[in-house]
Records
---
Amino acid sequence: MNEPTAPPGVPQITPPTQAELNKLSVMERQELLERRREFNAAERERSRQRFHQRLNSWVLLIGVVLTVGGFYGTLVTVRTAQEDLRTSRASQITDQYGKTLEALGSEDASVRMGGLFLLNRLMTDSPRDRDDLDAVLATYLRQHLKRQPIDKTKPLQQMPDLLPDTQAALAVLRKRPGPTPGSPPMDLRDIVAQKCDLSGADLSNAILDGADLAACKLTRANLSGASLDKTWLSYADLSGANLSGCEVRLAKTFDTNFSNTNLSGADLRGADFNNLDFSKANLRKAKLNEAILFATDLRGADLTDADLAGADLKNADLRGVVGVTEEHVRAVAKTNADTLFGD
């Protein structure tokens, strides 16, 4: 029978020989046997504890493995579901895109109206296709808002009203999200959209060359960087609009409202703004040299660093202008006794 060994760190005691045991008294032998039983019991308890510790460690490890496996399985399931959802959504958008194009090409105006509704929804649901959707909308507007012979000198009341489907298309244009950085400019050249409501529309960098926007409501519209070569803006309301950096000098602006308009850095050279309202307009760094501003309302306008060389400001109202002095204006521009200055 193997003798039990002492725990680690405890000095090893050599077992007594039989001769040594025979020399012990009965009481000593009993005490020795009792100590041996206690030692054996303690050793068995230590073995049992070690077994339970190993068992608990294995149970814990198995639990961790199962938890990680369950999490990974859930993650794979979620990713698969997301991919399926994206694929399904892309398929739905493609289907809607095809239906939209088909509807917009219909001869039936009511069907085209439905196509415009789908187009408006796609512009919200599919931002990544925004450039293509803008091109579709611009093509539709150019096809259905073609120029017709018209006398621009007629009163506003005689201008023809827009058809319902073209009004709906212009509503989509007004509500559409603005272009993203790097997007191609929206080509709206030569469209005829008299008396339309484009208030708040984002037409930044749009090509509006030759477009007829006479009597349009363009309040708070963003036209910054737009191309306005020979654009008709007569009778239009551009109050609060942003035309910063535009070549407004090339536009037709009879009786146009420019009050509170941002025209900072705009090119207005030689343009005819006779008797127009530019009150509180932002004309910082605007090019106004040789512009005709006869009897124009410039009250409260910001003319800081504006180029006024040769501008015709006879009978103009410059009361409350900022960024420029009366002496400077009279020195570089054309004024008369009826040119008003002061607070």
---
Amino acid sequence: MLPPATADPISAKSFGSGVVVCAADAYADPSVEVIHGDCRDVMPLLPEGVFDACVCDPPYGLHVADWDQDVPAVEVWREVLRLLKPGAVLVAFAARRLYDVLGWRVRQAGFEVKDQAIWMYRGGRAPSLCHLLPAHDPILIARAPGKPIPINVDEARIPWLNEEDKKQASRINPLRAAGRRRPVYHESLNAYGHEAFVANDLGRYPTTVLATDDVLGSMSHIFVVPKVRNAKAHVSAKPVELMTQIVKVFVPKGGVVLDPYAGSGPVGEAARLTGRKAVLIEMTRAA
């Protein structure tokens, strides 16, 4: 699936230092491979510029486990950048209070930070009376320098709730029945002028907000996914549906996505379900 680092196939090849690359036991589909080892040891051994995107849920640096002592260092993201094709996207989850640290380190590695998405969910309880109830995780979106790889808008569109929902979106200003703004602002601020927007039959344009269940009630323009509710799941497990939407948006059809912090492997499953390929790196054999 990947151009090999040497003349030998990547699968089942020992790279030394205890790092072994092998086909993933959990996947019947050969399009997903798991590399068992520390990504800091593994990534320098992989060939340059072969991945179409990197989607990952790295350590947050919240000290919830031995592996969560810090946000990944600049050197880690510099190695990720080396492995990506020019213009490829990096999508990385972060802790709310350390998002700035992740962004700074990603920039220092050479990425261009382009956007932020939000995963919203119902929080269980506040950590203390000094904290608000947690209800979202920020998602950093950055690009490798080079001509940007277009996102897959149509494949990731959010379906219309019904015909009325689609009809409402077709108005110039959905908040007003007449479809026109009041003449308060300059006409140039009306992006569509006096022509109505024509709704796409496939659904709404993907947004930067992804929500769990009905956390916001009926929000037709937001992609909604169920939260992981499994006591035996990875401590920071993300829903496969969530990763599937992200993979559909940012990984070209048939492309290869890298996840250097695979955990329980939702990015690999998302790739398998959407016709992509994936290389997952994980320190434990539970991925």
---
Amino acid sequence: MHKFFLLFILVGCQTTQHVSVPKSNITLFFQSNRQGNLETCGCHTNPFGGIDRELNALKSYRLSAPQSLSLDGGNLFVPKERAGSVEHYRYRAQLMLPLLKEIGLDVFSPGPQDLFLGQTALKILASSASFRFLSANIKNKKGEYPFARSVTITKGGARYGILGVTPSTAASDDFVIQDPNEAIAEVLPQLIKTTDFVILLSQLGNKSDQALAERFSKISVIIGADELLATERPMWMKGHTLLVDSDLNGYLLGKLQLDLRFPVNGLYSAKDVETNKAHLKEYRDRGDKYASYADKLERVLQLSIPDGASLYEYELVKLDEKRFGSQNRLTSEVQLFKEAMRKYSLSHRQ
């Protein structure tokens, strides 16, 4: 695995105040930086990952989570290190669409690597895909937004507003990338008015995501795509936003279960409360030398759950052989995909 796992402190998170229903449950499944990969990590011992295993996991979890959203934060189609022409990756992306439909992807926000495909190809993909493309800050050379700047999806009576941003430094011949802060400032106010819960798909990296969370406190969840980071626990962002991040290449599946009470006035986890209490006790037991640090922790740690609070459970699911290795229709479809790409490569050799 190529990312470092970090553990973070969580306390209550305040979010939007718009109310359409008194309560709702939803599970967010997410990936970022799949980079066109559909197979396992290839590890010698217990290889994990693979879109067929992802399908098994999603089917299993959806049995107990009928209200769910499947989100992709970008760099879905194109790897960082390319080994083919733009035509190669355009053809490959088209072949991926039926597989992504099979796993029930709902929303995708293009990342910098996806822009390699070009505006025309991405528009064709968007028109053919079973899922929605969106970006708040990708413009074409005419200054137009080729994709929806946000989408609203209703689940269980609650309205979830979703937007996405890509770095302004993303290089592309076809696109101009608007400053992400400027784009969010334009799109977010309307989402706050018309939705109950706002989710941001971000390709900016963890440090920039933290800055966004500080500035835009009405964003409830940021699904990041830092290639060096995977969060085992959500990062607490100044008491108002949860920041989560999955792994590279589709090896892990992000799962965030939310039991929401509207208006949401903090997101809490019983598991994190117990972990934080133990963490605080550890420093208290060390005596006066650590007293000031323990006092600081006590001011910021989530140590109790208020009545009527919204709750969450979070997991980075390892798509391993033992739990999810049973073959399914995607197992054979991935092999057909590989054969189609092999034939394409042979027919386009120069």
